[in-house]
Amino acid sequence: MGVGLEDSCVHCGFCLEACPTYVVTRSEVHSPRGRITAVKLDVDSQGFDTCMFCRRCELACPSGVEYARIITKVRRATPEKILMNSLLERPRLAWRVLKAGKSLNSGLIQRVRLSLRDPQEPLEYREESPEVILFPGCLTSLAYRRTVENALKFLKAKGLRVSVLNGCCGLAHRSEGQVERAQELVRRLTNVKGGTLVSLSSNCTAHMRESGVQVLDFSEYVLGLLGQERVELSLTVHDPCHANMIGLGKATREVLRKLGVNLVEMEEPSFECGAGGGYFLFHPQIAENVMELKAEKIRRSGTNLVVSTNPSCSLVLSFKGFQVVHLADLLAQTVTKSLE
Ligand code: SF4
Ligand code: SF4
Question: Among 55, 202, 205, 216, which has the minimal tally of Cβ within 10 Å of its Cβ?
């Protein structure tokens, strides 16, 4: 038998307290080490499905274990998850399906409808010879059209030509073990021609960059555009898990610093929010327990206003009663001139 990636795990357990599903269950089965052990032993485990794919264990691991590559080898997406991911590939079709969803006898569609509350028609916007190709990400297109409009408003106010590119980067597929489909989707973004590809969903930015796509996160792109803009607010910042792996929180904080906001750091800003992409739809109890831990950390910061640059995180934080904004929403407040 050859040596697998899983063999680099020395069972030290340093990853355990970083893992949200271990923290809320205290069960080895639902821990990174337990999942890796099951892979080593070549046995099936309930823990494969309960992983949130936040990859916090990778950051905590002193042995450099490539957990994401190990878990995606053994994860098998259920038909419901395959259906959801294929809809995310086409945000406009997803919107139509969700609109018609009231009359569809599908538990999944009803759960998604309820979570998004008011799914919106993805914004279509194109200009000749764009300098910026704005990639909202599938869920942002559907759940946060206002944020896409706000990003566009700010970029246009800076005199830039922009086109919006709706679609999916494949992160949702990869997290469920649909690795080939994920690669096909992200490869399309590698071939985007024209302007600078700018992503509005920071976990998508991280996934794309890791897959070799030349992309800037919105936070990174706007840093070079800021001038005298000011926002007088007190707020805290949540660091989405994949974005945190490539340090995007630094750019987010730099934008906020330039805007002059009063930033109150929460405890462990990169602690998982409980969304896990679409995880909260399939494992509501574990997700709720993780969300509550996150909510406590936010409450202790003393502010109710949270900056989140990733849509699934924004959704679940709003479920807990917080007011959630994207950087684009703050920047749009600084623009007096309307888009029209
Ligand atoms: S994954 Fe890394 S941190 Fe976790 S038990 Fe294995 S070697 Fe230790
Ligand atoms: S990816 Fe997240 S949920 Fe999965 S084992 Fe690692 S830390 Fe735990």
Answer: 216
